[in-house]
Amino acid sequence: MEDADPGWEELRKEARKIEGDLDVKLSSYAKLGGMLAHGGYDNGSGDGLGGDGSWKSMEMEIESLLEKLLDINDAMSRCVAGATTTTSVTQKLARHRDILHEFTQEFRRTRGNISSMREHAELLTSVRNDISEYKASGSLSPGPRILRERGAIHQINVKLDEVINQAQSNKGALAAQRSTFTEIQSKLRQLGDRFPIIRELLGSIKRKRSKDTYILSAVIAACTIFLIVYWISNNFRSVEVKYLKGSRF
After folding, report:
1. SS3 21
2. Residue 54, CA atoms < 13 Å, CB-side half-sphere
3. Alpha-carbon torsion (226, 229, 232, 238), positive or negative
4. Does pTM top 0.85 for this prediction?
5. pLDDT tens per residue, the chain (249 residues)?
6. What long-range pairs does 94-102 form, CB within 8 A, spacing at least 24?
7. Which residues contact 142 (CB under 8 A, 6 or more apart)?
8. What is the dihedral of CA 176, 180, 183, 189, to 10 degrees?
């Protein structure tokens, strides 16, 4: 497949466009995290940048763009696997995969930071409201216990977010490894088609491996049968000796 292939070039053009959109969206998303870190959280109706509506909308847009970019990368991988490729095309595909991986990791990291900061801000707001209510009611004794319970719940939520983020990272790594193995298998198949001697060599290795497996299985089976016969023979001799001793008496 040459670089001028219409399908390949169209996919690359769309991938570059989505990568540009993602770069802009992730920059805005990171700015939102910076605002939250400096106390810019707005828990109101969602009119500001830190509002619930704007925050959720931005997150959903980034997730949608990442899914589209992943689909395009898969389509480019199929395009490469189904045709004769050059080193340049393979390198370009690898670069697009690296960009997708970097964007995904950056989004997950920023989302985790924003979630933690929002939870922290909501916890502080809730604590202030509880303290105000206790002061107004004249009952301050339950305050420390409730604060400890809220703190414990917050810590549990943070740990759960860390576990989920780690699981998502592992999933991305496994997907990247699967793509790599698929590409290697495609390359081996192409080499086998180009050079029959390599295909014959791979076939010989596979046949030899199967032959070795059969031989090993036969040896194990023979040893097992021998042990069973030996055990039965010993038991039979023991019974015979006991019978002879009994008959003498």
Report:
1. helix
2. 17
3. negative
4. no
5. 544 456 888 888 999 999 999 999 999 888 877 776 555 544 444 444 445 557 778 889 999 999 999 999 988 888 887 776 677 888 888 899 999 999 999 888 888 888 877 777 777 777 777 677 666 665 545 556 666 677 778 777 777 777 787 777 777 777 777 777 777 777 766 766 666 676 677 677 777 777 778 888 888 988 989 888 888 877 766 656 555 555 555
6. 96/12, 96/15, 96/19, 97/73, 97/176, 97/179, 99/19, 100/66, 100/69, 100/70, 100/73, 101/172, 101/176
7. 134
8. -140
CA–CA distance, 183 with 178 (Å, rounded to integer): 9
CA angle 33, 110, 159 (to 5 degrees): 110
8/235 Cα distance (integer angstroms): 74
Q: Which helix H or strand E contains 100, and what residues bound it?
A: helix 87-137
Dihedral Cα 163, 168, 171, 173, nearest 10 deg: -100
Distance CA 73, CA 107 (A): 18
| Residue 170 tokens, joined | 């592992």
Closest by CA to 117, choosing from 64, 130, 163, 109, is 109
Is 176 within 8 Å of 97 (Cβ atoms)? yes
Structure tokens at 35: 């605002």
Contact 75, 14 (CB under 8 A): no
